[in-house]
Amino acid sequence: MEKPKFSLSTLTSTRSALHMAQIVICVVTFAVSYVWGHPLHTYWIYCMVVWGLCPIISLVVTIVEMFLIHKLILVFCMDWDDFTTGMAMMASLCTFSCTVMFANFYICRKCIWGWTVTILSVVCCALYCVETFRDKCDATRSATYVAALPGFIKILEAFVACIILISLIGYRGNPPLLWCIVAYAVPLPLTLLTIITNILTKIKKCLPFSIDRLTMIFLIISVLLYITAAILWPTYSFKGNPRPKDCPGNSCIWSIQFVVTFMTYVNLGLYVTDLILTCLGICGFKRS
Length: 288
What we know:
Helices cover 75% and strands 0% of the residues.
């Protein structure tokens, strides 16, 4: 078994240079946004969390690969190539959503800071997209789950669920909408648990039950919950609540509720697709 040791060639590789660029740009974006102001809006907080976590993940990946620790991880725990590709995909989605949110909510003609942060966020997204593209085109890297179709669908499900949860508004004192929050919240940890279990291949093989059948149960629960939310949220959000004439996209509650409605149907479609493909066994799942 190869022991961990420092690898200068890894540190000076194009991949490490890309990681360094991601770290620098994300940190600068985080700092500029923090200095610019503290709106304490859920979208702003979400963006700050993304710009804070992404460089940490890139730094950890760089350190692990620099000391060849990933070779030990591959032996004992999981497929490192699959994991890092999945993280790059998730970072691409998250930084893209930050760019859209910041451009919509915190930018104006005279807002120099807003424009600066948005441009920096675009660069962050581009860097992570480049890494994702490089990883997917590299034939030497494996794609066992996260980087393949099953895991990609799961990542999309988790991503859309996060967007829904940070967009929830106008639900207080309304029991049907409170139920919708439960319907949105429950599938997310189930999805994350499925992703983690499939990434940890060694642990997956040691389980006394079929993870595929458990995934099927999780998907059925998620689909049923999202069906209720798809009916209740638009019904009780827009009942007697037409779109106001003066409804700017960056501060209109009605528009945000519409975003939740739209994302609900998107995620319902993803879960239904995932369930169908899992049942048919054409997504890389081996039925047992």
